[in-house]
Amino acid sequence: MSNLLLRFLTAVVAVPLLILAINWDRPYGVWLWVLAAQITGLREWMAMTLPGESALTRWLGVGVGVAFASAVCWVHDPQVLLLGLCAATIIGFLYFLFCHGAIETVAQRVSMWLAGLLYAGVLIVPLALFKMPGGPGGGGRWIYVCLTSAWLSDTFAYFAGRFLSRFWAAKLWAAISPKKTVVGGCGGVIGSLVALTIAKLWYLSFLSWGDVLAIAIPANLLGQLGDLVESLIKRSVGVKDSGVLLPGHGGMLDRIDALILVVPYVYAYARWRF
Question: Which of 130, 162, 179 finishes a domain?
Protein backbone atom coordinates (compact mmCIF):
# COMPACT_ATOMS: atom_id res chain seq x y z
CA MET A 1 0.00 0.00 0.00
CA SER A 2 1.41 3.41 -1.01
CA ASN A 3 2.33 6.03 1.55
CA LEU A 4 -0.13 8.48 -0.01
CA LEU A 5 -3.00 6.00 0.34
CA LEU A 6 -2.07 5.31 3.96
CA ARG A 7 -2.09 9.06 4.68
CA PHE A 8 -5.51 9.35 3.07
CA LEU A 9 -7.01 6.44 5.02
CA THR A 10 -5.63 7.81 8.29
CA ALA A 11 -7.22 11.19 7.52
CA VAL A 12 -10.56 9.53 6.68
CA VAL A 13 -10.65 8.03 10.18
CA ALA A 14 -9.23 10.92 12.18
CA VAL A 15 -10.73 14.03 10.55
CA PRO A 16 -14.45 13.24 11.23
CA LEU A 17 -13.64 12.59 14.90
CA LEU A 18 -11.76 15.87 15.11
CA ILE A 19 -14.63 17.77 13.47
CA LEU A 20 -17.07 16.27 16.00
CA ALA A 21 -14.82 17.38 18.85
CA ILE A 22 -14.53 20.93 17.48
CA ASN A 23 -18.29 21.28 16.92
CA TRP A 24 -19.22 19.90 20.35
CA ASP A 25 -20.46 22.83 22.44
CA ARG A 26 -18.30 21.74 25.39
CA PRO A 27 -14.51 22.18 25.42
CA TYR A 28 -13.78 18.63 26.54
CA GLY A 29 -13.64 17.06 23.09
CA VAL A 30 -10.87 19.32 21.80
CA TRP A 31 -9.06 19.11 25.13
CA LEU A 32 -9.03 15.30 24.88
CA TRP A 33 -7.54 15.56 21.40
CA VAL A 34 -4.89 17.94 22.69
CA LEU A 35 -4.25 15.66 25.67
CA ALA A 36 -3.78 12.64 23.39
CA ALA A 37 -1.39 14.65 21.20
CA GLN A 38 0.58 15.74 24.29
CA ILE A 39 0.88 12.23 25.73
CA THR A 40 2.02 10.65 22.47
CA GLY A 41 4.15 13.65 21.46
CA LEU A 42 5.94 13.77 24.81
CA ARG A 43 6.48 10.01 24.70
CA GLU A 44 8.05 10.34 21.25
CA TRP A 45 10.19 13.28 22.36
CA MET A 46 11.54 11.41 25.39
CA ALA A 47 12.27 8.34 23.26
CA MET A 48 14.16 10.41 20.66
CA THR A 49 16.16 12.72 22.92
CA LEU A 50 16.73 10.43 25.94
CA PRO A 51 17.16 7.04 24.22
CA GLY A 52 19.21 5.46 26.98
CA GLU A 53 16.78 6.25 29.78
CA SER A 54 14.38 3.80 31.40
CA ALA A 55 10.67 3.60 30.67
CA LEU A 56 10.07 5.12 34.12
CA THR A 57 12.10 8.20 33.15
CA ARG A 58 10.18 8.64 29.91
CA TRP A 59 6.77 8.23 31.49
CA LEU A 60 7.71 10.55 34.34
CA GLY A 61 8.50 13.16 31.70
CA VAL A 62 5.17 12.51 30.02
CA GLY A 63 3.31 12.80 33.33
CA VAL A 64 5.01 16.03 34.37
CA GLY A 65 4.51 17.50 30.90
CA VAL A 66 0.81 16.64 30.75
CA ALA A 67 0.22 17.98 34.28
CA PHE A 68 2.07 21.19 33.39
CA ALA A 69 0.21 21.68 30.10
CA SER A 70 -3.18 20.85 31.66
CA ALA A 71 -2.59 23.41 34.41
CA VAL A 72 -1.81 26.04 31.77
CA CYS A 73 -5.00 25.05 29.94
CA TRP A 74 -7.47 24.99 32.83
CA VAL A 75 -6.03 27.52 35.30
CA HIS A 76 -6.35 30.87 33.58
CA ASP A 77 -3.45 32.59 35.30
CA PRO A 78 -0.20 33.60 33.54
CA GLN A 79 1.75 32.79 36.70
CA VAL A 80 0.95 29.10 36.16
CA LEU A 81 3.39 28.99 33.24
CA LEU A 82 6.27 30.30 35.38
CA LEU A 83 5.39 28.16 38.40
CA GLY A 84 5.00 25.09 36.19
CA LEU A 85 8.41 25.64 34.60
CA CYS A 86 9.99 26.03 38.03
CA ALA A 87 8.32 22.88 39.34
CA ALA A 88 9.26 20.85 36.24
CA THR A 89 12.87 22.06 36.46
CA ILE A 90 13.15 21.09 40.12
CA ILE A 91 11.56 17.66 39.57
CA GLY A 92 13.78 16.93 36.57
CA PHE A 93 16.95 18.18 38.26
CA LEU A 94 16.43 16.14 41.44
CA TYR A 95 15.40 13.01 39.54
CA PHE A 96 18.37 13.01 37.16
CA LEU A 97 20.78 14.08 39.91
CA PHE A 98 19.91 11.10 42.08
CA CYS A 99 19.81 8.73 39.07
CA HIS A 100 23.08 9.80 37.40
CA GLY A 101 25.03 11.96 39.83
CA ALA A 102 27.32 13.71 37.32
CA ILE A 103 26.19 17.32 37.06
CA GLU A 104 27.27 17.59 33.39
CA THR A 105 24.93 14.85 32.25
CA VAL A 106 22.20 16.09 34.60
CA ALA A 107 22.23 19.51 32.95
CA GLN A 108 21.97 17.97 29.48
CA ARG A 109 19.12 15.69 30.45
CA VAL A 110 17.17 18.43 32.23
CA SER A 111 17.51 20.70 29.20
CA MET A 112 16.07 17.96 26.95
CA TRP A 113 13.33 17.36 29.51
CA LEU A 114 12.28 21.03 29.62
CA ALA A 115 12.54 21.48 25.86
CA GLY A 116 10.16 18.54 25.43
CA LEU A 117 7.66 19.94 27.94
CA LEU A 118 7.48 23.18 25.99
CA TYR A 119 7.75 21.80 22.46
CA ALA A 120 5.48 18.76 22.70
CA GLY A 121 3.35 19.85 25.64
CA VAL A 122 2.69 23.55 26.07
CA LEU A 123 2.84 25.05 22.57
CA ILE A 124 -0.33 23.30 21.35
CA VAL A 125 -2.34 24.17 24.49
CA PRO A 126 -3.92 27.24 22.77
CA LEU A 127 -5.74 24.81 20.49
CA ALA A 128 -7.88 23.86 23.50
CA LEU A 129 -8.02 27.44 24.83
CA PHE A 130 -10.03 28.51 21.76
CA LYS A 131 -12.96 26.51 23.19
CA MET A 132 -12.51 27.51 26.81
CA PRO A 133 -14.71 30.12 28.54
CA GLY A 134 -13.17 33.52 28.03
CA GLY A 135 -11.50 32.49 24.78
CA PRO A 136 -11.35 34.79 21.75
CA GLY A 137 -14.48 35.58 19.75
CA GLY A 138 -15.10 32.93 17.15
CA GLY A 139 -14.49 30.05 19.55
CA GLY A 140 -13.84 26.70 17.91
CA ARG A 141 -13.84 28.21 14.43
CA TRP A 142 -10.31 29.42 15.14
CA ILE A 143 -9.26 25.78 15.28
CA TYR A 144 -10.37 25.45 11.67
CA VAL A 145 -8.22 28.50 10.89
CA CYS A 146 -5.20 26.71 12.38
CA LEU A 147 -5.90 23.45 10.57
CA THR A 148 -6.53 25.22 7.27
CA SER A 149 -3.33 27.26 7.56
CA ALA A 150 -1.18 24.29 8.57
CA TRP A 151 -2.57 21.10 7.05
CA LEU A 152 -4.38 22.11 3.86
CA SER A 153 -1.53 24.36 2.81
CA ASP A 154 0.84 21.47 3.56
CA THR A 155 -1.14 19.43 1.04
CA PHE A 156 -0.70 22.20 -1.56
CA ALA A 157 3.03 22.26 -0.82
CA TYR A 158 3.27 18.47 -1.21
CA PHE A 159 1.64 18.39 -4.64
CA ALA A 160 3.41 21.54 -5.84
CA GLY A 161 6.75 20.05 -4.86
CA ARG A 162 5.92 16.70 -6.39
CA PHE A 163 4.69 17.88 -9.78
CA LEU A 164 6.40 21.25 -10.31
CA SER A 165 9.88 20.65 -8.90
CA ARG A 166 10.94 19.24 -12.29
CA PHE A 167 10.78 22.83 -13.56
CA TRP A 168 12.52 24.35 -10.52
CA ALA A 169 14.41 21.83 -8.44
CA ALA A 170 16.04 24.24 -5.95
CA LYS A 171 15.92 22.84 -2.42
CA LEU A 172 14.40 24.80 0.45
CA TRP A 173 17.06 23.65 2.93
CA ALA A 174 18.77 20.53 1.67
CA ALA A 175 20.95 20.01 4.76
CA ILE A 176 17.88 19.63 6.95
CA SER A 177 15.17 18.25 4.66
CA PRO A 178 16.47 17.11 1.25
CA LYS A 179 13.01 16.49 -0.22
CA LYS A 180 11.56 19.95 0.43
CA THR A 181 11.82 22.34 -2.51
CA VAL A 182 11.46 26.09 -2.96
CA VAL A 183 8.57 25.57 -5.37
CA GLY A 184 6.86 23.41 -2.75
CA GLY A 185 7.29 26.17 -0.17
CA CYS A 186 5.83 28.74 -2.58
CA GLY A 187 2.97 26.34 -3.30
CA GLY A 188 2.30 26.12 0.43
CA VAL A 189 2.03 29.91 0.78
CA ILE A 190 -0.32 30.14 -2.22
CA GLY A 191 -2.28 27.16 -0.95
CA SER A 192 -2.68 28.77 2.46
CA LEU A 193 -4.12 31.92 0.87
CA VAL A 194 -6.45 29.92 -1.38
CA ALA A 195 -7.59 27.57 1.40
CA LEU A 196 -8.26 30.36 3.90
CA THR A 197 -10.06 32.42 1.24
CA ILE A 198 -12.38 29.49 0.49
CA ALA A 199 -12.82 28.90 4.22
CA LYS A 200 -13.78 32.56 4.76
CA LEU A 201 -16.40 32.40 2.02
CA TRP A 202 -17.73 29.09 3.32
CA TYR A 203 -17.67 28.94 7.12
CA LEU A 204 -15.26 31.59 8.50
CA SER A 205 -17.24 34.69 7.54
CA PHE A 206 -16.22 36.46 10.78
CA LEU A 207 -12.75 36.99 9.28
CA SER A 208 -12.05 40.11 7.25
CA TRP A 209 -9.91 40.03 4.11
CA GLY A 210 -7.20 41.73 6.13
CA ASP A 211 -7.40 38.87 8.63
CA VAL A 212 -7.00 36.35 5.81
CA LEU A 213 -3.77 38.00 4.69
CA ALA A 214 -2.48 38.56 8.23
CA ILE A 215 -3.05 34.91 9.13
CA ALA A 216 -2.49 32.90 5.94
CA ILE A 217 1.03 34.04 5.01
CA PRO A 218 2.69 34.22 8.48
CA ALA A 219 0.94 31.04 9.65
CA ASN A 220 2.07 29.12 6.59
CA LEU A 221 5.67 30.32 6.96
CA LEU A 222 5.58 29.32 10.64
CA GLY A 223 4.14 25.95 9.66
CA GLN A 224 6.97 25.36 7.20
CA LEU A 225 9.46 26.44 9.87
CA GLY A 226 7.86 23.98 12.31
CA ASP A 227 8.26 21.24 9.73
CA LEU A 228 11.94 22.10 9.29
CA VAL A 229 12.48 22.23 13.07
CA GLU A 230 11.03 18.73 13.42
CA SER A 231 13.21 17.50 10.54
CA LEU A 232 16.29 19.01 12.19
CA ILE A 233 15.45 17.38 15.53
CA LYS A 234 15.00 13.97 13.90
CA ARG A 235 18.18 14.34 11.86
CA SER A 236 20.16 15.33 14.96
CA VAL A 237 19.08 12.16 16.82
CA GLY A 238 19.30 9.89 13.76
CA VAL A 239 15.67 8.85 13.23
CA LYS A 240 13.44 9.03 10.14
CA ASP A 241 10.10 9.42 11.94
CA SER A 242 9.26 10.46 15.48
CA GLY A 243 7.12 7.33 15.87
CA VAL A 244 4.81 4.86 14.13
CA LEU A 245 1.45 5.81 15.60
CA LEU A 246 -0.16 7.19 12.42
CA PRO A 247 0.14 5.01 9.29
CA GLY A 248 1.57 6.98 6.39
CA HIS A 249 2.45 9.93 8.61
CA GLY A 250 4.85 8.50 11.18
CA GLY A 251 4.47 9.68 14.76
CA MET A 252 2.32 12.32 16.40
CA LEU A 253 5.08 14.93 16.23
CA ASP A 254 5.40 14.26 12.50
CA ARG A 255 1.75 15.20 12.12
CA ILE A 256 1.56 18.24 14.43
CA ASP A 257 4.98 19.73 13.71
CA ALA A 258 3.46 22.61 11.71
CA LEU A 259 0.70 23.21 14.26
CA ILE A 260 3.22 23.56 17.10
CA LEU A 261 4.25 26.99 15.79
CA VAL A 262 1.04 27.94 13.96
CA VAL A 263 -1.31 27.57 16.94
CA PRO A 264 0.44 30.08 19.27
CA TYR A 265 0.56 32.68 16.48
CA VAL A 266 -3.12 32.29 15.54
CA TYR A 267 -4.16 32.35 19.20
CA ALA A 268 -2.16 35.53 19.87
CA TYR A 269 -3.66 37.14 16.76
CA ALA A 270 -7.18 36.12 17.77
CA ARG A 271 -6.75 37.53 21.28
CA TRP A 272 -5.40 40.80 19.85
CA ARG A 273 -7.93 41.15 17.04
CA PHE A 274 -11.10 39.75 18.62
Answer: 130
- At residue 213, does pLDDT exceed 90? yes
Among 179, 159, 190, CA closest to 240: 179
Q: Are 66 and 35 in contact (CB under 8 A)?
A: yes
User: Contact at 8 Å (CB) between 192 and 168?
Assistant: no
Is the pTM here over 0.70, yes or no? yes
pLDDT for the residue 215: 95
| CB crowding 17-56: b at 16 or more within 10 Å, else e | eeeebbeeeebebbbebbbebbbbbbbbbbbbbbeebeee
Kindly give, in sequence order, each residue whose CB lies less than 8 Å from that of residue 155, ignoring residues fewer than 6 positions away. 191
179 lies in the same domain as 213: yes
Domain that holds residue 149: 1-23+136-274
Single out the residue of 159, 163, 166, 165 nearest to residue 190, CA to CA.
Answer: 159
Structural domains in the chain (count): 2
In angstroms, the CA 14 to CA 252 distance is 12
Question: Are 126 and 144 contained in the same domain?
Answer: no
At 216 the pLDDT is 92
Residue 128: closest CA among 261, 271, 269, 263: 263
Residue 147, pLDDT > 60, answer yes
* Average confidence score pLDDT of the chain: 84
